[in-house]
Description:
It is built from nine helices and no strands. The protein is mainly alpha-helical.
Amino acid sequence: xxxxxxxxxxxxxxxxxxxxxxxxxxxxxxxxxxxxxxxxxxxxxxxxxxxxxxxxxxxxxxxxxxxxxxxxxxxxxxxxxxxxxxxxxxxxxxxxxxxxxxxxxxxxxxxxxxxxxxxxxxxxxxxxxxxxxxxxxxxxxxxxxxxxxxxxxxxxxxxxxxxxxxxxxxxxxxxxxxxxxxxxxxxxxxxxxxxxxxxxxxxxxxxxxxxxxxxxxxxxxxxxxxxxxxxxxxxxxxxxxxxxxxxxxxxxxxxxxxxxxxxx
Length: 264
């Protein structure tokens, strides 16, 4: 075990070693592809299907909980990997000053961006992106964000489940489970390297948002990883992640564009 309690060798996973590597490999390589395909299909249905957003939320819930349960089963079959090694315990210490500073910056970004969303800034940005020759590089990230936000009461109820699910499942998958597998495969990798790998994997999982989305979610993933490594627990990352996603419920429907254009 290293300083943060991660597995030191793949043998710690015992008979579940191959399964752990396969699931971790899917998170790094498969999830970006699947996410991209699902989001493009979803965006294509928005103009003609009033239930497209609710249907997509349902698919997200099934996919994320399915992966989370699969990873949990693999971990339960790993005799040499205890709960502490995957962050399933109460915080053991306060996060370090760097992690605290990064978290404060993220919270500041969340507050500022939420105010901009509530004021209609996102709708105006989407409108600007429709002008020929303007903002083309930023379009995927902005378009994906606009498309996913709930409009109706029914969508908001379902989105609440999606936000909580993202906090629980994605932190378990990309911090608790993935970092444990990477540490076991790498055998001796430093904590910064492990965290960097987790950051890249989490950013790529949001590749459907374009380069800006990959960078933004990668940075957020790094902050979550810092909190996890600093406290030895997934609790704080789960809470912070869920709050970041649930903030979109504060955005009124009037601040969102009525029609979302499918990118070309």
